[in-house]
Structure formats: C-alpha cells, structure tokens
Amino acid sequence: MATPIAHVEVILTQENVHKEFGKVLSIIRPSWAPSEFRFKISSKNADNGIVKCYSTSSRDDTIIIRMYSEDHDTLTNNSSEVAFIKLVHERYGFAPKIIASFTNGIVYEFVNGKFMTLSTITMESNWRLVAKQVALLHSTEVEESLHKSAKISDLYTTIPEDYPIKLKNADFNERFQNEFPTRDEVIPEITDLIDHVLNIHSPVVLCHNNLRPNNIIWNKETGEITFVGFQDAGFSFQAQDIAFHFWKFVGENPLSFDDYPNRNFQIRWLRCYLEHWYEYTARDPNSVTHRHVEKLFVQVNSFYLLFLYQSLAEISIFDKLQEMGYPTDIFDVALASYKEYLRLKDEILNLALPNVSSENTSSFTGWCVGDFDSAFIEAMYANRRTTISERYHQLESSFIMNRQNILSGPMTRKEYPYGSERTSVLWFRPAIERLRAAIEEIRRLSS
Length: 447
Known about the structure:
3-stranded antiparallel beta sheet, 6-stranded mixed beta sheet, Phosphorylase Kinase, domain 1, single chain, Aminoglycoside 3'-phosphotransferase, Chain: A, domain 2, 17 helices
C-alpha cells in the first residue's frame, strides 16, 4: 500500500515562508533545527513561486517548495496535482518525488539540472526525449478517481464574458479601441474557432497541459529530462497539449514568433511522438504514415491558432492588474498575439485534414480509449441534437460490429521497458467499458 503524502493546512507566501514553513518541516524533516533552515527564491511570478530549502547541516537534502497564489485553482485542486505527480513519478520516473502538500502548494525532492531554454529544448536528443515522454504520458490509463477529478478545458470560456468595452486608462483605451476587436466581434470569432478545433477530432488523453520550457528540467550530465508544474494536469485534447508546448517556444515577454517551430521541425517531432504513442498503445509504430503525421500537424496548429486568439482574455483583467501595480506589458503581449493570429488565420484554417480513417477504422484494433472520449466530448461541447444523434449511431454501430470479436478474443497486451521497470498496457477491456458508458450518456442526451 502506498505511503500517504503528508498534508498541512497552511498558506505560504514568499513573504512568510521563512516563518510558516517550519510547520511543514516539523513533519517531513523533524531532524532539521529551525536555526539551520535556509531558503533561496528560484522563481517568482503572479501565479506561483519556487523556493529551495535546505539545512546547513544537511546540504545534500534539498527540497523544493512550490507555492501558488491564493486565487489559483490549485487551492481547490491540490489533491489532483499530487495524485498526477505521484502517478508519473512512480510509473515512469520523469516527475519529481512528492514529499508533502500544503494548502496552496506542494513540496518535492530537488531535481538536479536546469530549466530548459529554447536552445536546449531544440537540441535533437532533447526534443526526441520530450516527445517520447509526452507520448508515454498520453498513453496512460489511470484510476477512476483521477478521471473524476481530471479537467477537460472548457474552451467556451476561453474569452470571458467580461471582455471590456473600454479601458480605464485613456492612453491604453485609445489603442484598445483602434487595434483590438470589439466584444461583438470576439464572441462569434471564438465560437467559430472552437467549432473548428472540435471538428478536427483530436483524441482526449492524459495531458500535462503546461509543458513550457521552464516546466522541463534537463540534467546535462545524465541526459535525463524531468517534467514539473503538474498543477494543470488532466484530460484534454492530444493536439492541444502539444500545441501549448510549441507555443511556448516563442517565449513569454517579449514574444518572438520567429522561434515558433517551423514545419520541418514539427513534422520530425510529431513523427517521433506518434511512433512512440503507437508503441505505448499496443499498435505497430511502423504503421505510422505521412498522413498520420500530417493530420496531427493540422490539429496541433489549429490549437495554436486558438491559443493566439485566447491571449485576448488578458485584456479582461488589464484594468485590475494595473490597479494592483503590475506591469502593463500584458497589453503588448495580447496585441502581438492578436496580430500574429490575423497573419496566420487563413493559412491555418485552410490546411486540409488528411483522411486516415481507411487505414485503421475497419476494425476495432486501431482505436484507443482517447478516440471514444474525444467523440463523447465533441458531442457534449457541440450541444446539437443532430451531432449527438449522429455520434451515438457511429459509436453504437462500431461497438455492435466488433464486440463479439473483442469480448471473446484474446486481450491485446503490449509490454515495453521504461527505465528499470516493465509496464503492461491493456487496452480493449477498458475501451469497451468506456464506450458503453459513452453510448449510454449520448443516448440520454439525445432523448
């Protein structure tokens, strides 16, 4: 039985951590003397801060404190983050070991290495390992309890309803009126974008959802790569998770859109990813074709377009942040992203989505659990009776045609090594149960 993670009800900030963290240390490091505690701030921004902590008598035992702001989702989703990090650490080894949690954050073991940068994340040996680990994460089957707590991004709230009509600052408001879209223009635009990404049928898988370079630690000596920052982990669209990773190549501020991965880099990265994903989901990696890669390329860049447009949401909180004394650079970031969106919109929306259905949908064998989840989520988001009804009949027909072969035939088992462990992936039985549940839910919605 797994050892439970210690939890302490205390809200830590970078101002009080020196005083209040002792409540956590008394449980996880009782041998450390308070007079020997040392803290070093490693990262600080509006959402979270990272602090290193060690004892002068035990410098080799460094721990990391990751604190989130009091209005961050982690305050209500702390247990889910802990569960996902534990799962990835124990099953695959590329997440840090969790030591404890507190009201607004977590404590984990120090990981040797440095946060990735654009120059290190584009090194071939590194991006191939990142692609491999993302594929492994996306292939993960989890316990039902994690399904219940997992988050699937509610894309309809990407642009909040409180998108402003005007800004309080006269100078910024003049630019806002001249260079940004109006609320009446934003709502139909984001609706069309959401319809587009839902119609490209990206599977729903277990995602990191925040795979920016500074959430990836690279140990140059060992070549190992560790993922951190799992506070947003949960079920989401496969292409969305990859698109977010590529999007963050452009940086935070200032943005450098020239650093967004070009087509050649993306095609190589996506092929590497797909071959590993097929392997980990009990399919033949050699069956990945150019059309599979091209399809994922279209899906990923469609989500990238959505990310560019959703940057307009920052304007909704511009007045509030300015009143709180935050820098006004989010205005320029949002504007630059919007201009890049306008530049790429027609090019990306006109990309043709290759048809690969004839290659693997004649039988159940080529499907994975994410395909069923994706169909179900599409129907839920579309909220149109015809779409729900059509999807129900498609799923039911596939189930009826294949259930006898699947239920009476042998289980498909794929064993693969990862590190020092071997893991088994059993696909068909969980897939059938998920399909049954999806059919019942879609039948209920369409009645």
